[in-house]
Design a protein that fits this description.
Elements (H helix, E strand, L loop, with lengths): L1 H8 L33 H9 L17 E2 L5 E5 L4 H6 L6 H11 L9 E5 L13 H18 L3 E5 L1 H7 L7 H4 L4 E3 L2 E6 L2 H6 L8 H25 L1
Parallel strand pairs: 2-3, 2-4, 4-6
Antiparallel strand pairs: 1-3, 5-6
Bound molecules: uracil (URA).
The site of uracil has 13 residues, from helix 4.
């Protein structure tokens, strides 16, 4: 299959050779089908696979698959945990109360979700009753998000909450309150764990040291990092 081999070697990432009997059409049918880096040439076929995906049992209870919103060429990617009720109904991530707060947080440092940010989730289907996604569900969905990261190619990734950190950097064992606001280099990208907006909604105090105040520090650091990356790119 020469075209397929070309596709994998052109991916620009460490390409794992696909198994001999690899059939990309089978990806949505089972989590046992691998999604090697470089499988998708663009986000459109990835979204098509997601929309018909049956790789885990969340497919049985979802209304819509939630793939992404925002700019697919954005320098910043925000990765949430999983869709809630509103997201499941609308098929878009972060459109409920957490999403409105996320927009405000980003807007406070002049970041625009249509321009500067691409938003998605660790799992693309709503866990029933908004429970945390299970390890099997995260693992079944993970190759899709790794492909989204490769294709969007963000310089900065914001991991909202513990599940998001676990989904992207499984080796990270420190708790979210320890690592929030710190930069973690992962696969050549600058990742920052931040508190989940839903947690801020439950803890509305703006007093120093409280979650909202911490978020304000963290988002200013994100803005500064973006400005720094842009300034470096201009010099080169
Ligand atoms: N919370 C998340 O983590 N993601 C969403 O899309 C909405 C709420």
């Amino acid at each position: 299959m020469p075209e397929q081999i070309d596709l994998f070697s052109a991916s620009g990432v460490e390409a794992t050779p696909p198994p001999k009997d690899f059939d990309p059409d089978k990806i949505p049918t089972s989590a046992s089908v691998p999604i090697p880096p470089g499988t998708y040439e663009s986000l459109a076929p990835l979204a098509d696979h997601c929309k018909s995906c049956q790789r885990c049992e969340l497919a049985e209870t979802r209304t819509n698959v939630v793939v992404s919103r925002g700019n697919p060429k954005a320098p910043i990617m925000v990765i949430g945990e999983g869709p809630g009720q509103q997201e499941d109904e609308q098929g878009l991530p972060f459109v409920g109360r957490s999403g409105q707060l996320l927009e405000k947080i980003l807007g406070s440092v002049r970041l625009d979700t249509e321009k500067d940010v691409y938003i998605c989730n660790i799992v693309k289907c709503r866990p029933p009753g908004n429970r945390n996604p299970l390890a099997g569900e995260i693992n079944a969905c993970r190759p899709y998000i790794l492909e989204q990261i490769r294709l969007v190619d963000p310089k900065i990734i914001l991991l909202t909450g513990a599940t998001s950190v676990k989904g992207i950097i499984p080796s990270e064992k420190r708790g979210i309150t320890k690592i929030r606001g710190t930069w973690i280099e992962w696969e050549g990208r600058q990742c920052m764990p931040i508190l989940h907006p839903a947690y801020l909604l439950r803890n509305p105090s703006r007093d120093p040291g409280k979650p909202k105040w911490l978020m304000w520090q963290d988002i200013q650091a994100v803005r500064a990092k973006l400005d720094e990356i842009r300034a470096e790119a201009e010099v080169q």
